[in-house]
Amino acid sequence: MLPSQPLLHAAVFALAVLQALASDTFTAAVYEHAVILPDVPDKPVSPDDALALMNKNMDVLEGAIKEAAQQGARIIVTPEDGIYGWRFTREAIYPYLEDIPDPAVNWIPCTDPARFAPVPVQERLSCMARNNSIYVVANIGDKKPCNSSDPSCPSDGRYQYNTDVVFDPEGKLVARYHKYNLFRRETQFDYPKKPEAVTFETPFGKFGIFTCFDILFREPAVVLVSELQVDTVLFPTAWMNVLPFLTAVEFHSAWAMGMGVNLLSANTHNISMEMTGSGLFTPEGPAAYHYDSGTEEGHLLLAELSAHPRLSPTYP
């Protein structure tokens, strides 16, 4: 008799964990995504139209996730703004947002979407992770209601956050990070009341996560490395290669070398806005990188990395 699907999935997941535990390295992936943008981002649309656009982008991301998993990747990072784009007003982005719970709730959206419904984006991302037995890192939007008893509550009665989520190979939500250092154009989002230092453990090292502009500040970037001692940083970004900043590849590679950690940097791809440059960076230099200012195509990168770079005999 053939084993049931849940038992088969559990067996595959357990085998993958044992394989990861037996190795000091792991294969990681990042995907530079040419985001499909809304026609008029500053005009509100219906929830159905918002979801239709997000599904188009998730169709592309799902293909990249499946390919990465087939090539042995244990984790994949996708870009900031990779599911709905940018240049929204506060009102226009609202139909794209979901209420993202604290990971402490121990929740697998793929198998229990009704628990915090409606969450079609989280459900689909969770299923991508579960169906491919891979950690999936994505950037979406979180909404949280508030009221007049909170002096910081916006006039529309809600907080809106630029948010990273991580789903493990079972599809469980294991990390949620609200971007603290917003770029000057991100007026559609609110600042969290205090910076968050988000970490999670895997069979192949300790991971931290933050978003794009955060990398230029002590909190959370330096805190994760110097105080919380993460091995690898997950970095969804929408990095424009314009002054006063260096190009994405140069800056992010130098940051990983200076901090002594792996940096998995997934950039959006839009050549009209000078957005390109992704890579898997290590304390010893780039393991793989991609920079393309000539085409409009996305690109998948994979590399084998040290799970604990500080323990390497060649650690800088």
Helical run tally:
6
Q: What fraction of the residues are assigned to beta strands by DSSP? A: 25-35%
* Overall tally of structural domains: 1
Shape: globular
CATH class: Alpha Beta
What value does the Rg take, in angstroms? Answer: 19 Å
Mean pLDDT: 92
What's the end-to-end separation, in Å? 54 Å
Biggest sheet features: 6 strands, mixed
Q: What's the count of strands?
A: 12
Adjacency order of strands in the biggest sheet: 5-4-3-2-1-12
Which percent range fits the helix content?
Answer: 25-40%
CATH architecture, by name, is: 4-Layer Sandwich
Please state the structural category.
alpha/beta
CATH homologous superfamily - what is it?
Carbon-nitrogen hydrolase
CATH fold assignment? Nitrilase/N-carbamoyl-D-aminoacid amidohydrolase
- Name the poorly predicted regions: 18-22
Family: Belongs to the carbon-nitrogen hydrolase superfamily. BTD/VNN family.
InterPro entries: Biotinidase-like_euk (IPR012101), Biotinidase/VNN (IPR040154), C-N_Hydrolase (IPR003010), C-N_Hydrolase_sf (IPR036526)
Keywords: Glycoprotein, Hydrolase, Signal
Organism: Tauraco erythrolophus (Red-crested turaco)
